[in-house]
Specification:
The complex is a heterotrimer of chains A (271), B (335) and C (321). By secondary structure, chain A is mainly α. Chain A contains eleven helices and no strands. Chain B has two domains: 230 residues, 3-Layer(aba) Sandwich (Rossmann fold), CATH 3.40.50; 95 residues, Beta Barrel (OB fold (Dihydrolipoamide Acetyltransferase, E2P)), CATH 2.40.50.140. Chain B contains nine helices and 18 strands. The chains are: A mainly alpha (271), B alpha+beta (335), C mainly alpha (321). At the A-C interface, helix 1, helix 3, helix 4, helix 5 and helix 6 of A face helix 2, helix 3, helix 5, helix 6 and helix 7 of C.
Chain lengths: 271, 335, 321
């Protein structure tokens, strides 16, 4: 669909596309308004007044800080594990054709292709069968499992674009395995790995379905929000947290897009 | 160095990929300081042989020695042999100067020294001052020169070139052929050059090995390969010689073997009968410096070339072909 | 290079091994590339194979266990009794409700996503193209819970939608809709209509990129050829564009379908008290403690998805992923 450079989109198509995009964005923008509302008890629209007081209230809530801290901790470690496993897997898959290659790439995608609730309950029943107590570590275990695919997708796309003879050229010029990795492989896949890592972080930071099954008493930020959604305690605080979460997840997405924009697009389509 | 007679020697070297015999029992001796071409169609095993010398592949059987030292089990980074890749394989994240200095960098040469050597190498390939550019900003010909400089700066004992001119257009290609030849003479390094272009191999190399089906069909100087092909394959692949069946050859040489006859060795007389081989002109192809004729000599298809200015027969005309006995080459291929 | 002439003969042809563990490893990996491959594959395969597949297997096994109705303890003997329970009218209801919802969500997502994908693939250029891409990626990656929360705000009785409709004097229309059986309810936030809207909102972005990818592979001259041959735009769409975009739609529908099948949070927050598969799984494994039934319930989406994927593969949808 490359031609038609002077073609003009028909008006109905323009309107439908614009309406579709508005449908996607307006609800998120609404969150920003609600974060400033003076109304405490209901979701009244239009807001009777605007205030900044809830930011201060939220700032002083220890439970929010604890949840945030746990989320960051879980997402960091899950991302680190996913980076190692995803890169190794991508390197192996793209370096040679071997028996079972297809099966392994399917295995990587499976935790995302199947509904999250299945990943969640599978892990939960495995933990209970093996009598592993729920802890921060069980949450990380679950998160790392579905984060691998994000790193893997990014790395595989980059490996595909990287000329295979570059590694040979490096060895030919006298570089040993580790030198080749450091001076040639890493600089070429580095940005893809950073992008994959950011997306993995965002994915883990936001995950709620698997987490409800693999967490004990710990509350990640999404779990905290879920509690507030089911049993609202202080609605304005939830509004503020929601807004902050939108802003915080936006940054890694923009960064990942920026890092992979030439070439392997669709970096995050396999969320 | 005690044994300087051969730069690279193959002893019964084979490289099989599963059931595919990419290289099958090759014996080869490349002399020190020569420009050696490995010629053959794709899949004939020439590139695999180059990769075996570089160390990207390991032989399934047989031994390879480089300047008398065994290369068995020696990885590429421990061989003082460098390669110019077909796609150049320049590092896109490094600028030209860092690309050229890469080999020295990983060997631990101090920065100032490796930069000045890299600059010198760029001068050698006529790209002085290009060090600050990225490979992506260079033309195909320039990238090729950078790849050459990147290999030569390491002062290799053997330089391997894998179809290095394949991606260049005709004019640039002819210039580079000339330049590579001069460079090789000036440096005295052994060059091993892989190509599927017989013209390129014949014009540049001191000696040529013709590959077919993983084996060496013939090794010799360009003249030997061109004038005296040993097999039908070589005769056919190198310069579209006329391959003659044994019964034809027997009439002129008494030997019951296949023979070959160069198109330019055939003389044409416009007559319906006479002393020689009667034939009919099927078609004429004007090629500038010469005209090529397709002939039907009583069921045998022959090609002949006539230099520009010679009297040309017409299409469909009956002619008589003659040639000197000594230009008929009898091949080793039996009946 | 004149110095090179002088030093060349001094350099060895074959360098000695550098020694050290790293040097030895490097040599080993070159000599036996399979060893390197195994070393690279082992950690991810162990992790995913043991942790993930092992867990799936554990789940599958538990679905063949049963629960003792008197003691409430799990009876670890192989039986199909639990699967039999799925066929009870109440449970069958849940399954049918979920699958129908997933199908409707998928269909609507395709309808809304298509114009966006089509515009982005055919008309957007340069800066606009990047903007479109981000415009899809950002909602897709935005926090799932925040998106659900936003709709709770919108659909609430005192929320923006009610306000907007009253300003437009369309409140009667909303009331009429809400009074309908099955899809209606007290307010939008406690009706199937509300559940449906939020499902579409949350999963629709997953439909856009695969369709766009499929459309971008359609050569533009194909459309010109079609109209050149006298086809009306409608005919071109039906006979040329749609068939070519179909693999992309199917690829996208894998996401929308699978994600809707397994979701239990959206219907819990916005919807009626009637359950979806995800909620049933959650309820049975949690408060009820009936892990076998929960396991059997979660096998349903796996089977449905396997059938779906099998069909999608036959349509060549995986090339568009």
């Amino acid at each position: 669909m490359r031609s038609d450079p002077n073609g003009r989109a028909p008006l109905p198509l323009k309107l439908a596309a614009a309406a579709g995009l508005l449908f996607l964005h307006l609800p998120i923008l609404l969150i920003f308004v609600y974060a400033f509302t003076t109304e405490e008890k209901s979701y009244q629209w239009p807001p009777p007044g605007l205030t900044l007081q809830w930011f201060a209230v939220t700032w002083n809530r220890p439970d929010v800080w604890q949840a945030l801290q746990l989320s960051v901790q879980v997402a960091s470690i899950a991302t680190a594990i996913a980076l190692v496993l995803g890169t190794l897997c991508a390197a192996a898959i793209s370096s040679s054709k071997f028996f079972g290659r297809e099966a392994i790439s399917l295995l990587v995608i499976l935790p995302i292709a199947l509904p999250g609730i299945i990943t969640g309950i599978s892990l939960r029943s495995a933990f209970s069968l093996m009598e592993i107590p729920f802890s921060t570590w069980t949450i990380m275990l679950g998160h790392a499992t579905f984060c691998v695919v994000v790193v893997y997708n990014n790395a595989v796309a980059r490996f595909r674009r990287t000329s295979g003879s570059m590694i040979e050229a490096s060895m030919d010029l006298g570089a040993k395995g580790l030198q080749t990795f450091r001076h040639v492989v890493l600089p070429n896949i580095g940005t893809a790995l950073v992008a994959g890592g950011m997306l993995a972080f965002a994915l883990s930071f936001d995950e709620v379905i698997v987490t409800t099954f693999t967490a004990g008493q710990q509350q990640t930020l999404p779990i905290w929000m879920l509690e507030e959604l089911i049993r609202p305690r202080q609605r304005p605080v939830t509004n503020v947290v929601a807004m902050v979460v939108v802003l915080v997840t936006l940054l890694p997405i923009l960064a990942a897009y920026y890092l992979t924009r030439d070439g392997d697009q669709i970096a995050g389509s396999g969320k | 160095m005690a044994n300087m007679t051969s730069a690279v020697s193959f002893q019964k070297v084979s490289r099989h990929f599963g059931s595919v015999r990419a290289v099958d029992g090759v014996d080869l001796d490349i002399r020190s300081g020569e420009f050696f071409a490995m010629l053959g169609p794709s899949g004939s095993g020439k590139t695999t042989c180059l990769r075996l010398i570089a160390g990207f592949e390991q032989p399934t059987a047989g031994h390879i020695a480089i300047f008398g030292e065994s290369a068995d089990g020696v990885p590429p980074y421990r061989r003082n042999v460098n390669t110019v890749f077909q796609d150049y394989a320049l590092f896109p994240h490094l600028n030209v100067l860092d690309n050229v200095a890469y080999g020295l960098m990983v060997k631990g040469v101090a920065k100032a020294e490796r930069m000045s050597k890299a600059e010198e190498a760029l001068k050698l390939v006529q790209l002085p001052g290009y060090g600050g550019r990225r490979p992506g900003q260079l033309s195909g010909g320039q990238r090729q020169r950078v790849a050459l400089a990147r290999a030569l700066v390491n002062e290799p004992k053997v330089l391997l070139l894998d179809e290095p001119l394949g991606a260049l257009d005709l004019k640039l290609r002819e210039n580079m052929q000339e330049e590579l030849k001069l460079l090789q003479k000036a440096l005295g390094i052994t060059f091993v050059f892989v190509t599927h272009d017989q013209g390129e191999a014949l014009s540049m190399a001191d000696r040529v090995a013709v590959f077919n089906n993983g084996r060496v069909a013939q090794i010799g100087t360009p003249e030997e390969i061109y004038q005296k092909p040993q097999t039908r394959f070589v005769a056919d692949f190198v310069g579209s010689s006329n391959v003659l069946p044994p019964d034809f050859v027997k009439r002129y040489s008494g030997q019951n073997r296949w023979g070959s006859l160069r198109p330019e060795a055939i003389r044409i007389t416009r007559a319906t009968s006479g002393d020689g081989v009667p034939a009919r002109v099927l078609s004429l192809h004007y090629m500038g410096a010469a005209t090529r004729l397709a002939l039907d000599a009583q069921g045998l298809r022959l090609n002949a070339t006539l230099p520009a200015g010679a009297a040309l027969p017409e299409q469909g005309e009956s002619v008589v072909l003659t040639f000197n006995r000594e230009s008929l080459h009898v091949m080793e291929d039996g009946a | 290079m004149t110095t090179a002439e002088a030093t060349r003969s001094n350099l060895p042809t074959i360098l000695p091994p550098s020694g050290g563990i790293l040097g030895a490893l490097s040599d080993l990996f070159w000599r036996r590339p399979t060893v390197l491959l195994v070393v690279m594959l082992l950690p991810p395969v162990l992790w995913l194979g043991v942790v993930y597949l092992g867990s799936l297997l554990a789940l599958l096994i538990q679905s063949f266990f049963s629960i003792d109705e008197f003691s409430g303890l799990i009876n670890r003997e192989f039986t199909l009794k639990t699967y039999g329970e799925l066929l009870r009218p109440a449970n069958l209801d849940i399954i049918v409700r979920t699958v129908v919802m997933a199908a409707l969500v998928t269909l609507s997502s395709a309808v809304i996503a298509f114009p966006i994908a089509y515009f982005a693939a055919r008309y957007a250029r340069g800066k606009w193209k990047a903007l479109f891409y981000l415009g899809v990626m950002m909602p897709l990656w935005s926090s799932y819970l925040v998106k659900v929360y936003a709709w709770k705000l919108i659909l609430a009785k005192e929320g923006i939608l009610t306000w907007l409709l009253s300003k437009l004097h369309l409140t009667a229309l909303l009331d009429a809709w809400l009074s309908l059986p099955v899809i209606g309810g007290n307010s939008l936030s406690v009706s199937f209509t509300g559940t449906f809207i939020v499902f579409v909102y949350v999963w629709m972005p997953f439909m856009i990129l695969p369709i766009q990818a499929a459309l971008e592979r359609v050569p533009g001259n194909l459309i010109e050829a079609s109209s050149d041959l006298g086809a009306t735009p409608r005919q071109t769409f039906r006979n040329v564009l749609f068939p070519l975009a179909l693999p992309g739609i199917v690829a996208g529908s894998i996401f929308t379908f699978s994600l809707t099948l397994g979701d239990y949070i959206i219907p819990q927050i916005i919807g009626t008290s009637r359950l979806f598969i995800g909620q049933a799984v959650y309820a049975h494994q949690g408060t009820a403690g009936n892990i076998p039934l929960a396991a059997a319930f979660s096998v349903v989406p796996i089977v449905v998805m396997c059938l779906y994927l099998w069909g999608a593969k036959r349509m060549g949808a995986f090339d568009a992923l």
